[in-house]
Design goal:
The complex is a heterotrimer of chains A (about 325), B (about 550) and C (about 425).
Chain A lengths: L48 H17 L3 E5 L3 H6 L11 E3 L5 H14 L6 E7 H6 L2 H10 L3 E7 L40 H7 L4 E6 L3 H12 L5 E6 L3 H4 L6 H11 L5 E4 L2 E5 L8 H5 L14 H18 L9
Parallel strand pairs in A: 1-2, 1-3, 3-4, 4-6, 5-6
Antiparallel strand pairs in A: 5-7, 7-8
Helix pairs in contact in A: 1-7, 3-5
Chain B lengths: L7 E3 L14 E5 L5 H5 L6 H9 L3 H9 L5 H7 L3 H5 L11 H15 L13 E5 L3 H12 L3 E5 L8 H4 L8 H12 L4 E3 L7 H8 L3 E4 L5 E2 L12 E3 H7 L11 E5 L3 H12 L4 E5 L11 H9 L3 E3 L2 E6 L4 E9 L5 E11 L2 E4 L3 E2 L13 E2 L2 E2 L12 E3 L10 H19 L36 H4 L12 H9 L12 H5 L5 E3 L6 E3 L9 H5 L5 E5 L3
Parallel strand pairs in B: 3-4, 3-6, 4-5, 6-19, 8-15, 9-10, 9-15, 10-11
Antiparallel strand pairs in B: 2-22, 7-16, 12-13, 13-14, 17-18, 20-21
Chain C lengths: L1 E5 H11 L4 E4 L6 H13 L6 E4 L3 H13 L4 E5 L1 H6 L1 H9 L5 E6 L13 H5 L6 E4 L3 H18 L3 E6 L7 E5 L3 H7 L15 E3 L5 H33 L7 E4 L6 E5 L3 H14 L4 E6 L1 E3 L3 H7 L5 E6 L10 H8 L6 E6 L9 H12 L6 E3 L4 H13 L6 H9 L8
Parallel strand pairs in C: 2-3, 2-4, 4-5, 5-7, 6-7, 11-12, 11-14, 14-15, 15-16
Antiparallel strand pairs in C: 1-8, 6-13, 10-12
Helix pairs in contact in C: 1-2, 1-7, 3-5, 7-9, 10-13, 11-12
Classes of the chains: A alpha/beta (about 325), B alpha/beta (about 550), C alpha/beta (about 425).
The structure holds flavin-adenine dinucleotide, thiamine diphosphate (TPP), iron/sulfur cluster and magnesium ion (MG).
Thiamine diphosphate binds next to helix 2, strand 3 and helix 4 of chain A.
């Protein structure tokens, strides 16, 4: 007789919750008592991936720490849309100081907590890609290098959104921004520029580095939870689509983030003490074009004569897939 | 804390900012009609009972199931499951094994002895049901549950109709049939066996019935003109199969030829194999693609050694048991045309499986009644032209399956009930279909269908043991969980999770969700990420 | 307890006595000895309950301090010159967030040309950042001011800079009176934050404030600075009561009785000024001086009152607002608005140039005789300046002035090329 054992809950594997799952296996976001660290009434654009990513990550950190958490926020959309006087959307102790110093402020808080005998209270710092990979990079690297007890969360929407979509060092090649217009010989952001901060973080040999995405909540929560179980400097780089800056339909925020992963353009991985320890396999591989096509910032890639550019982006995706081993080995059944 | 003015704020104070005013489109929850439900001739709410089964609450699942269909253990064996054909999951990997879960539930009920909920308070109305086939049984069940007194009059010696006297045991063990019939009778349905109703109006008057439901089926085997010698053994399929229920099994001989291309032909051929025929050959005019029998049944028959001659017609049968067969060819329109090529086949008997006609004699003289193409015409409410006289199943124009018959019985019962109350039964409007493109299948993990275990071929050709086995509990659970819940919320929490504005309120187990329009900005992510298409975007009224 | 020690060491000891919990620093001359001293004290265990963080920049130093202070720790840092400018953004921010951080400025010039020596350009550049700025005249005062600074900062929820002249004070060995720990503890209770990041009582700190409330926020900051003008003398008085020493306060007058000419100065130069005043008084001249102890908030009323009998004021400044003149002068002028007092500005001691008694005596005398120009530069080598100006007039591409001046002077740097 043909027997098949149940390996998983059919509809629970990828959804946020699912009534069939054991309570302990449900996501933080499925919980009716979740913190909603970033509460309703914030002024993020419709479908803002950053707003979503922040709540995902911080709610998970709240659960992991038993609500003993303090957050530092760099200047940027997240800060601006969450705290315009007289209304704050935060439900947790939160401080915004400057654009480029979130990591340092967090280091200071961590030190103060130690000295005040409040070691159980944990600190996270968070900022956009600009606040992290550019202006805040010095402080970030310093925090890493000292191995301060801070989890830094970068919400990567691939440009300076709050100031009107200018290029950052996280802006991908060919993307149109207000400072890399889709004109000239090489329209959009030039190839061969930008930096990969997760890899740079790994080079600091800190206890934990991971990439995550709003498209994979369970993976994100697992990573935040793992990070909060560790001490020392930790970094999670979260891909968060920005409908305004990317010229995408707000409803497609998660879908686009998913396509970034499934195309190989945004690899999901983890590293400990500088060594790659895991990657999240691509489930249904798609060509990069499927991801790019949904975003106006890449519209010029779909005009006549742009084939070579498009092919170069595809090559980046292919390279990632190879480099990080993003395809599951043929599963032996 | 003496907070600095403006620079330090109270947490959570942004609740004062009602971002719902930004919205131009609003998401709304809705229920769409799952394709399985839409395709079920018995009108089962398949998805809802799968929902209970997914959670392991089989009794609730069974109760949800029998709200529409009192014969799940039978259905789980003989239904041709158009639901599975319609199932969206077929477009993803393979259809959900609805039928096997149904059988699992039906068997569980029989094993555990679950009884139906008691009928509603008596209405004082009496309804006559003629025929204890699936249609009659279904109508009786529903009518009884609605509180009416029901009497079934059945011509045969046992209840079940074609389920007993047509469908072979190896597909439908009789204990199963008996068990499910008994449960209906246990509701207080009166059954009189062995009496054929010959005049419906007289019968109603005599029994002071307020209404009647006719479900006499189609039992007269159709004949084809085949010149035959007087000693040639030519039988009709229905008689052969009916004979299987008696003490003396039909004598078919070692070489049996069956003429026809429907499921009945296959049943007879497979029965012949089990009765010891070394050769069972089906002769059919057209090709396998054109054959009305279901492919899986053809497959099972072939496995059991049944042979099929495609594109062939029988021209005559000589006394000594020799059949002359003419080869056919399909014309442009797909109709078989003679080729003039002949061959001969040796046969101890020839069984004609060419369909059945209805014996409508009990309706003679009923005014207003219309008969067309040998079947009784009914309206959308299953009522014949004669007020208070309803009919369904094989005797009315429709597909002839157990499931259709059961569906007719249910539908008729609802209309009879309304008619008895001097009202009209208006079924609630059907929801829009939950088509595949409404789903976001990303969220469903990849899980192929569980195959039902099959009996060894060796045992199949010698015994009448049931061929297709049931699923065990874990398999049934797995199969139930493959359901995508097309068009209806299954509380996966996706909307609750993916809203960037926390504008979804989770109401708790079984309560689903609500949208907090004070904060919903109308981004539409919930709609996009709902796996099952249970949320819709509609323009905001300004 | 009296002890001979370097100014930086004295300050480090004072900081340690104040029981800070977080210290962060980045090295820059002439602040280095202070933080080195503290670093050692923390590492050796002499200073307990304190974390010393070596950061990667001054911007980070003050940012770490901001975090630590917001989380309720008594926090300290120190810097100078370029370092202060490098942290400028955070300097404003700490004040805006009302965090009682104490920071020592070892005053030093700002480049280019790069120069490690003393003047006041650094703290003057950030005078309006919302910090209280106290200036120390002596090492003893520097020590005392740091103890007062924490109390002031924490009472007012406002950060305080204690400014002390680089090298002249930071690197000078002098005898100082070190207070006892118990006395300091009695004067400076543990830090009770006005607002703190605490999961038990969450708040949002650092909101974005728009036009609707920004003016009010700024007004309140101004108001707090004004209230500091009352607080500072109170704290100084309390300090005197406990430690028996006058230190700090708004202004410190010297031989002001009947002074018709009053010299105003900040920091260590007041010692030299007072020596000259002694000489001139001995010659019968009606001259006195005022040391500005609190530069921010500026004690307008106190100054006006102190200058009630003055006919002439000479403001001796260690910084220059290029294209304008004196910086302190502007505030002095504001204090004397409507008064018929002649105000002279003398810019001196830039980039560490020695301010000699002779030179001071000359300009003071000129001031008394009303011979002094409104703005003059102490010991300016006019020959060099004139030649350079002539050269610039002659050649359109004259090259950098600083290099040319060095070349003229035959300084070694000129050969580096
Ligand atoms: C061999 C065979 C195999 C089949 N296999 C399947 C299958 O696998 N799946 C499927 O869905 N369908 C199958 N069918 C079709 C299915 O059995 C019928 O469509 C279905 O049984 C029709 O139900 P019914 O209630 O209308 O009539 P029936 O089942 O025919 O029942 C009618 C009943 O009325 C009784 N009766 C007739 N006249 C009178 C009268 N005057 N007075 C009193 N009683 C009377 C009869 O004795 C009979 O019991 C099969 C049919 C055959 C012949
Ligand atoms: C020192 C400084 N430089 C520039 C700015 C202007 N600024 C504010 S937010 C921002 C963009 C933020 O971009 P990013 O960090 O990517 O966050 P996002 O808004 O995209 O989420 C900029 C350039 C600033 N506030 N401070
Ligand atoms: S601009 Fe982009 S990141 Fe900023 S609030 Fe809008 S969607 Fe979010
Ligand atoms: Mg950004």
């Amino acid at each position: 007789m043909i027997q098949q054992t149940i390996k998983f809950y059919q509809t629970g594997t990828f959804t946020v919750g699912n009534r069939l799952l054991d309570e302990s296996q449900r996501s933080v976001q499925a919980n009716m008592e979740r913190t909603n660290s970033l509460n309703s009434g914030h002024r993020a654009c419709q479908g803002c991936g950053e707003a979503l990513g922040a709540r995902y990550a911080i709610d998970a950190a709240m659960r992991a720490t038993g609500n003993r958490l303090i957050a530092v926020n760099a200047t940027g959309c997240l800060e601006v849309f969450s705290t315009p006087y007289p209304e704050s959307s935060w439900q947790i102790p939160w401080i915004h100081s400057l654009f480029g110093n979130a990591a340092a402020v967090a280091s200071g808080i961590a030190a103060a907590l130690r000295m005040r005998g409040q070691d159980d209270v944990r600190v996270i710092a968070q900022g956009g890609d600009g606040g992290t990979t550019d202006i805040g990079f010095g402080c970030l690297s310093g925090m890493f290098e000292r191995n301060d007890d801070v989890l830094y969360l970068c919400y990567d929407n691939e440009a300076y959104m709050n100031t009107g979509v200018q290029r950052s060092s996280a802006t991908p090649p060919t993307a149109r921004t207000a400072t890399t217009m889709a004109v000239g010989d090489e329209p959009g952001n030039p190839f061969g520029t930008g930096k990969n901060v997760p890899l740079i973080a790994m080079a600091h040999h800190i206890p934990y580095v991971a990439t995550a995405t709003v498209a994979n909540l369970r993976d994100l929560e697992a990573k935040v939870t793992k990070a909060m179980a560790l001490r020392g400097a930790r970094y999670i780089h979260i891909h968060v689509p920005c409908p305004l800056g990317w010229g995408s339909d707000p409803a497609l925020t998660i879908r686009i983030a998913r396509l970034a992963v499934e195309s190989g353009l945004f690899p999901l991985f983890e590293a400990a003490h500088g060594e790659l320890t895991s990657r999240t396999f691509i489930r249904r591989r798609v060509p990069a074009a499927e991801y790019l096509r949904l975003q106006k910032r890449f519209a010029h890639l779909f005009t006549a004569g742009a084939e070579a550019q498009l092919a170069r982006v595809q090559a980046i995706a292919d390279r990632n897939i190879e480099r990080f081993g993003l395809l599951a080995p043929e599963s032996a059944s | 804390m003496n907070k600095p003015f403006a620079i330090t704020l109270e947490v959570g104070s942004s609740l004062a900012n009602k971002t719902g005013s930004w919205r131009t489109m609003r998401p709304e929850y809705l229920d769409r009609l799952p394709p399985c439900n839409a395709a079920c001739p018995a009108g089962e709410n398949i998805q809802s009972w799968l929902y209970h089964a997914e959670g392991g609450d089989y009794e609730s699942a069974w109760r949800a199931l029998v709200a529409d269909n009192p014969l799940p253990a039978i259905m789980g064996r003989v239904c041709y499951h158009p639901c599975e054909t319609a199932c969206n999951r077929a477009l993803h990997d393979a259809a959900v094994g609805i039928n096997s879960v149904e059988r699992f539930l039906g068997d569980a009920a029989l094993k555990k002895g679950w009884a139906f909920a008691p009928p509603a308070a008596g209405t004082g109305k009496r309804v006559l049901v003629v025929g204890a086939g699936p249609s009659g049984l279904s109508a009786a069940y529903h009518l009884r549950r609605l509180g009416h007194a029901v009497k079934i009059v059945e011509a045969g010696p046992l209840a079940g109709g074609m389920m007993r006297f047509g469908i072979p045991k190896y597909r439908l063990p009789r204990e199963v049939l008996d068990g499910e019939v008994r449960r209906i009778l246990d509701l207080g349905v009166e059954l009189e066996l062995g009496r054929k109703v010959t005049d419906i109006r007289a019968e109603m008057a005599a029994g002071r019935f307020d209404a009647a439901f006719l479900a006499v089926g189609a039992h007269i085997g159709k004949r084809a003109y085949i010149p035959a010698g007087s000693a040639a053994r030519m039988l009709d399929a229905v008689s052969v199969l009916r004979g299987m229920e008696g003490e003396d099994k039909p004598m078919l001989g070692r070489r049996v030829v069956v003429y026809g291309g429907g499921n009945t032909a296959l049943d007879v051929a497979r029965t012949a194999r089990r009765l010891g025929a070394s050769e069972a050959i089906i002769v059919y005019r057209r090709t396998r693609e054109k054959m009305p029998a279901h492919d899986f049944e053809v497959e099972e028959a072939l496995q059991e050694g049944v042979m099929i001659k495609w594109l062939s017609t029988i021209r005559n049968m000589a006394d000594e048991g020799t059949l002359t067969v003419e080869k056919m060819t399909l014309d442009d329109k797909g109709f078989p045309q003679p080729t003039g090529e002949f061959e001969t086949l040796e046969a101890d008997s020839l069984v004609l499986a060419l369909g059945q006609d209805v014996d409508l004699s009990l309706l003679d003289g009923v005014p207003g009644l219309e008969i067309r193409d040998g079947v009784a015409v009914v309206g959308p409410d299953m009522m014949t032209g004669f007020p208070g006289l309803f009919a369904g199943g094989d005797m009315v124009p429709s597909e002839r399956t157990v499931t259709v018959a059961v569906g007719h019985g249910k539908k008729a019962a609802r209309h009879i009930d309304a008619w008895l109350r001097d009202t009209r039964h208006a079924p609630p409007p059907k929801h829009e279909l939950a088509a595949f493109d409404k789903l976001n299948t990303w969220y469903y993990s990849d899980a192929s269908k569980t195959v039902r275990p099959m009996l060894d071929v060796a045992r199949r050709s010698s015994t009448f043991d049931e061929v297709v086995q049931g699923l065990d509990e874990s398999n049934a659970l797995f199969e139930a969980r493959r359901c995508l819940s097309c068009g209806n919320c299954f509380e996966c929490d996706n909307c609750y999770g993916v809203c960037p504005d926390n504008a979804i309120i989770k109401l708790g187990p079984g309560q689903r969700y609500e949208i907090n329009y004070d904060y919903c900005k109308g981004c539409g992510i919930c709609v996009e990420e709902c796996p099952c298409g249970a949320i819709n975007m509609v323009p905001e009224k300004i | 307890m009296l002890e001979q020690m370097e100014g930086s060491q004295a300050v480090a000891t004072a900081i340690a006595l104040a029981r800070p919990q977080v210290i962060c620093a980045y090295p820059i001359t002439p602040q280095t000895h202070i933080v080195e001293g503290l670093g050692e004290m923390v590492k050796s265990g002499e200073l307990k309950g304190c974390e010393f963080i070596n950061v990667e920049s001054e911007f980070a130093a003050l940012s770490v301090a901001i975090g630590a202070s917001a989380a309720g720790a008594r926090t300290y840092t120190a810097t100078s010159s370029q370092g202060l400018l490098f942290m400028a953004e955070a300097v404003y921010n700490a004040a805006g967030l009302e965090l009682p951080i104490v920071m020592t400025i070892g005053n030093r010039a700002i480049g280019a040309p790069i120069n490690i020596w003393n003047d006041h350009s650094d703290s003057m550049a950030l005078r309006d950042a919302g910090w209280i700025q106290l200036f120390a005249d002596t090492n003893q005062e520097a020590l005392d001011l740091h103890i007062q600074a924490f109390r002031l900062a924490e009472d007012l929820s406002c950060p305080v800079m204690v400014c002390m002249d680089g090298f002249i004070l930071t690197h000078a060995y002098e005898r100082v009176d070190l207070p006892a720990q118990a006395e300091v503890d009695a004067f400076l209770p543990p830090y009770e934050p006005r607002q703190v990041l605490d999961p038990a009582q969450p708040v949002t700190i650092g909101a974005m404030v728009g036009p609707d409330a920004f003016t009010e926020v700024r007004y309140l900051a101004h108001h707090r600075q004004l209230s500091a003008l009352e607080k500072i003398p109170e704290v100084a008085a309390a300090f005197k009561a406990r430690f028996g020493r006058a230190s700090g306060g708004l202004l410190r007058g010297y031989r002001m009785e009947g002074a018709e000419t009053v010299v105003i100065a900040l920091g260590s130069v007041n010692g030299t000024v007072q020596d000259v005043i002694d000489e001139m008084r001995a010659d019968g001249m009606a001259i006195g001086s005022l040391a500005i102890g609190t530069f921010r908030p500026f004690p307008l009323a106190a100054l006006r009152a102190a200058l009630a009998g003055a006919k002439r004021v000479l403001v001796l400044e260690k910084c220059l607002a290029a294209g304008v003149g004196g910086i302190v002068t502007d505030d002095v002028r504001r204090a004397l608005a409507g008064e018929q007092v002649r105000i002279n500005t003398v810019i001196g001691g830039l980039g560490g140039r020695a301010i000699t008694r002779e030179s001071l005596r000359r300009v003071f005398a000129d001031a008394c005789a009303a011979r002094l120009e409104r703005l003059s530069f102490l010991d300016l080598d006019t020959g060099v300046v004139e030649r350079e100006l002539a050269r610039e007039r002659a050649a359109r591409r004259s090259g950098p002035t600083a290099e040319a001046v060095l070349r003229q002077l035959g300084a070694p740097g000129s050969r580096l090329g």
